[in-house]
Specification:
With about 120 residues, the protein is of the alpha+beta class. The protein is globular, with a radius of gyration of 17 Å. The chain contains 2 helices and 7 strands, in the order H-E-E-E-E-E-E-H-E. The strands form 2 sheets. The protein has a 4-stranded mixed β-sheet, covered by helices on one side. The protein has a 3-stranded antiparallel β-sheet with strand order 1-2-3, with no helix packed on it. It has helices spanning about 1-15, 95-105, and strands at about 15-25, 30-35, 40-45, 50-60, 65-75, 80-90, 110.
């Protein structure tokens, strides 16, 4: 029983990390879930043409901290989130804007900014 609980707690510390790789030469976006930064558990690959825009989304928090997400929107509406930042409530997030513009340039897509008032 104690051994099982120990393995359960250990499992919480080895949750896989996700990473997204943009390969302009092959015109592909690859999403990987890795363990210990080297063992790929799951991988999915998309052509640039699978996406219709770069997407910036802001979630507002009642406690004064917003979360700004940058991702890619597929033609069917599904989103592939690339990265997020926590920022003070309603303040600009230059890192997110810069990343969105760089992605849009690499993939040849427009940046979509939904109304975030």
């Amino acid at each position: 029983m104690v051994l099982a609980a120990g393995f359960g707690l250990l499992g919480l510390y080895i949750i896989p990390e996700s990473r997204t790789i943009i390969d302009p030469a092959q015109r592909r976006v690859r999403r990987e879930f890795v363990l210990f930064n080297s063992l790929i558990l799951y991988e999915r690959s998309f052509e640039f043409s699978a996406f219709k825009s770069v997407f910036i989304k802001r979630n507002f928090d009642d406690e004064g901290v917003d979360t700004v997400f940058v991702g890619l929107r597929r033609h069917k509406g599904w989103r592939l989130w690339i990265r997020y930042w926590n920022t003070p409530h309603k303040s600009a997030c230059e890192a997110a804007e810069q990343m969105a513009e760089q992605l849009a340039d690499k993939l040849g897509l427009a940046v979509e900014r939904p109304d975030q008032t």
